[in-house]
Amino acid sequence: MDPSTVKIPPMKDLTHENITPNVHIINSQCPDARLRYLLTSLVSHLHDFARETRLTTDEWMAAIQFLTAVGQKCDDIRQEFILLSDTLGLSVLVDGMSHPKPPGATEGTVLGPFHTHDADRFEIGESICSPGKGEPMLVLCTVKDTAGNALENVTVDVWETDDSGRYDTQYPGRTSPDCRGVLTSGKDGFWFKCVKPVPYPIPSDGPVGKMLEKLHRHCYRPAHLHFKCKKDGYDELITALYIRGDPYETSDAVFGVKSSLITDIDSIADPAMADKYGMKVGDHLLKWDFVLITEQESKNLKDRLAREALAKLGSTARLEDGLPVADN
Amino acid sequence: MDPSTVKIPPMKDLTHENITPNVHIINSQCPDARLRYLLTSLVSHLHDFARETRLTTDEWMAAIQFLTAVGQKCDDIRQEFILLSDTLGLSVLVDGMSHPKPPGATEGTVLGPFHTHDADRFEIGESICSPGKGEPMLVLCTVKDTAGNALENVTVDVWETDDSGRYDTQYPGRTSPDCRGVLTSGKDGFWFKCVKPVPYPIPSDGPVGKMLEKLHRHCYRPAHLHFKCKKDGYDELITALYIRGDPYETSDAVFGVKSSLITDIDSIADPAMADKYGMKVGDHLLKWDFVLITEQESKNLKDRLAREALAKLGSTARLEDGLPVADN
């Protein structure tokens, strides 16, 4: 690089007191207003964290080594940085801001690492699990808009653990999908057969597992059933239903549980009902009414919440394409 | 894990609004007060960063992928996370807090990735560079305490680039150290021969290099000479001297330059002086007076600055072994 092309505004007499504004000065040449805004906020918080804690060089080095180990644990099927984000509550926060829901609509929650794109399509009423995968459960659902109109042709992706707490992808030598499936809603919603999900541990043999251990946290998620509901014109709903009374209901390792998503499981008592759905009396029964919002409802809500949040923070940022950038 | 052993205090009805206190609740079982304090501050700042920027899922995923790439770029001789910390100004901040200096003492700066432990020992007056490494430079130094007393037997580690801007470790097939050496101060300080250092780029072929490009920053460091001064009872001084007038003097890619560490280089004008030191008239001359502080001076200063900084931040933390922990 030709030094004469250095156009960076000069730092002001650098000390560790004024390092933060000096980093902002050097980053100020970034032509992308949003990236500039992200970096300014990131650097300010990073430095404030170090100042507030008087972070020592030994602690800094331990953090460098931890982050390096997290990166090096990642491969094609393992994403340890997402796990870190999950266990620090960042994932559910980002998801909540990106997909806010008005009262009455079904809340979203974290996607998690076990969704695949190869699930089979099923007809209404079929079982998404092969035989012997756990205690049989019937799931009866409706899908509506916020005005209460039934939504047909919603593509519903469902996935869950078997009764050993494992997703199909966690079995070595997996050749085909199991305990997952894609259905399409009709005017009465959709229903399918599956198994009762159970609690399971997140992968704990890496640096994030070590961190949880140091923090005296467990690595379990309460039992749940994942859903992804998609229809043109509607905000995609990524969510999960949690079984009430799970021992990890109030301490989910990745903070995915929300009160509005906790549901009771009944058992089928009526022989006629069992007969109608091809189940047995005593089998588990889960009923749920999904409510989707339109893309326009989502956009309006996101804009309003962004404005309210920035006002509450006393931020002078302005919104550009719905996202804050510095007001300069 | 036996669910009955879950002793974690329950989260309060999780929403993305209250995720931060909920993460604190789950982390509150950590028995190490300092780690608990670090995590509380880290999670608060991480969440505030996401809230302030309304971080989107796409941006979050880009950050996950960036951090993964940073981790995977690291190996035995490359530490991309330290480079990231350096380029965000964190390293110099942490170093400044860990090794504060009173007025009159020589300031410290970042160690950088090029220090080695295999440098040869040299007698006063020898050259630490093999022939042909650059423009000859004589370095004349004193080392004193804050009261002005000469300090003998200080171990002084020196390292620098050659005139191509490379450290010896950056040459493939390096068999022995060059442009680095260890000296011991006498009652008149120490002096040695070397070459005039030149500006050089930090490694820019990884994710951090890509980041700097996106920010329209250059990857250069101004010319400097590294010093590490060590003596029992004294706070180890890790510092560098920067050559005044360097084109990157006010835009160091890693924020290591401090005004008090910028020095002029003269040339040797007096033939008698050239003769005395075995140099030529016209060769470069660098003179510097190092002032070290004792471990006790360092500890007292660090404690005082920590107290002042916490008071300024309005923090209610108390100091334990000189470091803040939560007051509970």
Give keywords.
homodimer; 328 residues; alpha+beta; Protocatechuate 3,4-Dioxygenase, subunit A; 2 domains; five-stranded mixed sheet; four-stranded mixed sheet; 8 helices; 19% strand; globular
Secondary structure topology:
The structure is a homodimer of 328-residue chains.
Chain A: H1 19-27, H2 33-53, H3 57-73, H4 80-87, H5 90-98, E1 136-145, E2 155-159, E3 180-184, E4 190-195, E5 200-201, H6 207-214, E6 220-221, E7 224-230, E8 237-243, E9 262-263, E10 266-267, H7 271-277, E11 284-292, H8 295-313, E12 318-320, E13 323-325
Parallel strand pairs in A: 1-11, 8-9
Antiparallel strand pairs in A: 1-4, 2-3, 2-7, 5-6, 7-8, 10-11, 12-13
Helix pairs in contact in A: 1-2
Provide structural commentary:
The structure is a homodimer of 328-residue chains. The first copy, chain A, contains eight helices and 13 strands. With 328 residues, the first copy, chain A, is α+β, with helices and mostly antiparallel strands. Chain A folds into two domains: 55 residues, no CATH class; 190 residues, Aromatic compound dioxygenase (Protocatechuate 3,4-Dioxygenase, subunit A, Sandwich). A five-stranded mixed sheet of chain A has the order 3-2-7-8-9, with no helix packed on it. In chain A, strands 4-1-11-10 form a four-stranded mixed sheet, with no helix packed on it. In chain A, helix 1 runs antiparallel to helix 2. Chain A is globular. At the A-B interface, helix 1, helix 2, helix 3, helix 4 and helix 5 of A face helix 1, helix 2, helix 3, helix 4 and helix 5 of B.
